[in-house]
Every structure is written in C-alpha cells, then in structure tokens.
Amino acid sequence: xxxxxxxxxxxxxxxxxxxxxxxxxxxxxxxxxxxxxxxxxxxxxxxxxxxxxxxxxxxxxxxxxxxxxxxxxxxxxx
Length: 78
What we know:
The protein is an all-alpha fold. 47% of the residues lie in helices and 0% in strands.
C-alpha cells in the first residue's frame, strides 16, 4: 500500500523539471527551418530533454535573435 502523503503528492512534469522555451506555437519557418514560436530547430526540439543545462542555456541565449530574424511570436511582442 502507498503511504497517503506520497499518493497525494503530484509528480513533477518534464516542463517543471527542464526549462523550455516552448510556448506551444509550433510552426516551422519555411526557409529558416526554425520554429517561429520558440526559435529552435527541429533537431534542438527533438533532443531538448537529452541536452545538458549548459547546452540548453546556450541555445536559449540565441533564441531572441533567431526569433527576430524569423519574425516569430516573441519578436512580434517586443
């Protein structure tokens, strides 16, 4: 039998554990081949949970300029 307090504790989601730039606007730019919602490439999206924190941070630092170039969601909000 599972202890009551354990059973009532929600399990963390992957998104809660791993920081992600995903904002659920998943549309690929036709020429840049980047998601216009988050600015990542398909390869980066696919490997995101396998990347180290340092690799994810490096990619996330590049996203604002990628989104500006692609005219993506976050660039439009600026």
